[in-house]
Design brief:
Layout (H helix, E strand, L loop, with lengths): L2 H11 L5 H21 L2 H17 L10 H19 L7 H8 L12 H20 L2 H12 L4 H8 L3 H26 L1
């Protein structure tokens, strides 16, 4: 574990509540970015990150230091995100609602670009986001960590608390499932 993290944890356990702010500052952006990709919503990612930090603060005495603090924190956030996703299983939203949730607009910054290109690109992104959203939590999480966070298999295994072989298997199954969902969606568009 990082010695700076350990010092902040020790100070916090000794009663220095402000020391936890150092951990928040160090990891909030990284955690938030991963959660945005996992949840597909900036608002939900912000809520889950905040919940994870609050819970981590409350449970800091249970942190054994067997792994990196971020691994432990990520596991808390992952569980909170999975719980939130289970609670919000609702009908699929429209493209407009998705834009509203994520804050992303179809935009091609090149002045000479064809406007339809940006719209098609956004539609494809929405299609991928929707297919990714339909994956099981454990499959979506490993894909986000591998493909978007560029984590190694070993890092993912540590974060999820499972063997590397399980991570490889989940990634393989998730890629296949995502490919099938995208193929079906593309055929339905034609």
């Amino acid at each position: 574990m990082n010695t700076d993290d350990q010092q902040l944890i020790d100070r916090c356990r000794a009663g220095d509540v402000e020391a936890f702010g150092g951990l928040v500052t160090r990891y909030q952006d990284r955690l938030y970015g991963t959660l945005v990709r996992m949840l597909g919503s900036t608002h939900e990612a912000s809520d889950v990150a905040q919940d994870a930090f609050v819970l981590a603060f409350q449970k800091l005495d249970t942190f054994r230091g067997d792994s990196a603090f971020y691994s432990w924190l990520f596991r808390i956030a992952y569980n909170a995100a999975a719980s939130r996703r289970r609670k919000r299983r609702i009908a699929r939203t429209s493209v407009e609602a998705t834009r509203e949730q994520t804050g992303q607009e179809p935009a091609d910054q090149r002045p000479s670009a064809d406007p339809s290109h940006a719209l098609q690109s956004q539609e494809r992104s929405d299609l991928v986001r929707q297919a990714l959203d339909e994956l099981a939590d454990d499959h979506r999480a490993v894909l986000v960590m591998k493909e978007m966070e560029n984590l190694r298999y070993e890092q993912i295994a540590e974060l999820l608390g499972c063997p590397v072989g399980t991570v490889r298997s989940r990634i393989h199954r998730a890629r296949n499932e995502l490919r099938e969902k995208l193929n079906r969606a593309l055929k339905a568009e034609q």
